[in-house]
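Q: A reviewer asked whether we had any structural model of the full assembly, not just the individual parts. We don't, so I'm hoping you can provide one. Inputs are below.
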Amino acid sequence: MSEILVLVDHADGAVRKTTTELLTIARSLGEPSAVFVGAGIDAARETLVAYGADTIYLLDSADLTDYLVVPQAEALAQLVDRAAPAAVLVPSTPEAREVAARVAVKTGSGLITDAVDVRAGADGGPVTTQSVFAGGYTVEASVTRGTPIIVVKPNSVTPEQSPGAGVEETVEVAVSEAARSARVVKREPRTKSGRPELTEAAIVVSGGRGTGGDFSDVEALADALGAAVGASRAAVDSGWYPHSYQVGQTGKTVSPQLYVASGISGAIQHRAGMQTAKTIVAVNKDAEAPIFELVDFGVVGDLKQVLPQATEEIIKRKG
Amino acid sequence: MKIVVCVKHVPDATAQRRFDADHTVDRAGVDGLLSELDEYAVEEALQIAAAHDGEVVVLTVGPDQAADAARKSLQMGADSAVHVVDEQLHGSDAIATSLVLAEAVRKIGDYDIVVCGMASTDGAMGVVPAMLAERLGVPQVTFAAEVSVDSGSVTARRDADLATETIEASMPLVLSVTDQINEPRYPSFKGIMGAKKKPVQTWSLADLGVDADQVGLAAAWSVVHSVAARPPRSQGVVVTDDGAGGRQLADYLAEQKFI
Ligand SMILES: Cc1cc2nc3c(=O)[nH]c(=O)nc-3n(C[C@H](O)[C@H](O)[C@H](O)COP(=O)(O)OP(=O)(O)OC[C@H]3O[C@@H](n4cnc5c(N)ncnc54)[C@H](O)[C@@H]3O)c2cc1C
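A: Here is a predicted structure for the entire assembly that you could use as a starting point for your response.
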């Protein structure tokens, strides 16, 4: 069977859910090898093995974390040349996306971004599904040159465990002088909200301009449902909620089981970030709001009335 | 200081965007415009140039109508434009586009900063700035939400997933900016009139020394098998709140097993 490289997304060894999704996809294409960059393998090992990593490549050097993108791209390209994998799967974070872009140029390989599904085609090679033009079209594609480099969106598959051999191999990386040209001089970790990570959450409750700046009803409903909170750009631009919670074309793309849009009109740029949600619910006082074209269930009404009532009812039912 | 700003002409996102029979984006039958995300790049280039006595050259690659994107950038205040247009470019992927941009930037020459938008609003891959930096062999500072420039170097704030990062690099470099960075200006009447007299150069692939077999649909490193309009979501149930809307919502969520 052929080797499939998976670039691991982790924070000091805490493996993010997308990595378990990529390993699950990799198993359907061949033998998964996890590429682990940076420190923290002791915390990560169990998860990587549980989800099927047969090999774990360890790449640890200060160069890989003090500088963005470029050293990682060099290291991954070297590994691609050496291991000659059948494909490389990369999570859809801004940094990993750019690593993928540079590896594609370096190795003379085709690149596919934002795949929502990857399966083995007739020749065994990966065939991808993408959702484009704000979810208006579905595109099937495959790479025809070099090693397929595929950026996969979160929530593309349900992660399934199936233990791999987990053989570890330390890889010496040679990082060029040129790669050390854009230095990270400061890193301020974001304060955690205590809620699920927006892109990974099974349920997202979002608020827009219709909240009038008060997100407390949105947050209360989110907490009753165990959901993440999102925001429209109008809410972010007004300074009501941080940019890292923005859903849409220039924010995060989410693909949850349930998306609740409250006080959001449903502009095309917002849809681009949430249209692949399985179930969509909206609360909006304007019956003509375009968001209602998308919904499975909608309430025309004032969110200041509807959300607290729904929250109270949910808490009551949960007992 | 010389700043090159790369802009793309895209189909209007609020129109009915579609594909041609060869699975490429229909760029002729749908109204196009300067990608809104590139307006932030033009604005940032103009602000940097104003503060550092610089000049701004706008660069676009695309069919005839892409000249509109260059013109709008000139109206906003860029000094001159380069439009790379060649029939062979039809169907080019990001890999080929970055090659053409890189050769054009080299031909423009003597640049300090190449500014790009964070992604196009049509393909939305967000990879061209990184590919361009790779090809030019210069530092990349991407997804900048705030930039400061002083003699020879650029410092940027980048709002990454888990942290806010401050990045520093020396020029020449490739910079990509997000929609958080500034408020793009509207062209003034004076800007619109003045743009008519600004120099626009048109270059072909031959002018750049790029072989036709390195670009276009046939040279793309990936192939599209099929394109299908997503079936419209089946219309759901919409109720009007008469005092029980919240409970009805909870009922629905319970029915769907979300509670
Ligand atoms: C290049 C570009 C990129 C963009 N990227 C994004 C993006 O990533 N994400 C994004 O969201 N947008 C993005 N936008 C902006 C987008 O076009 C819309 O402007 C934005 O989504 C509107 O946000 P909104 O729905 O909250 O506000 P509005 O469109 O103003 O809608 C507010 C809604 O709230 C309803 N409302 C008001 N009061 C109440 C109430 N008391 N109860 C219930 N409902 C109420 C109103 O009926 C209305 O429908 C982008 C735009 C551009 C040009």
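A: Points you may want to mention in the reply: Chain A touches chain B through 91 residues (CB under 8 Å). DSSP finds nine helices and 17 strands in chain A.
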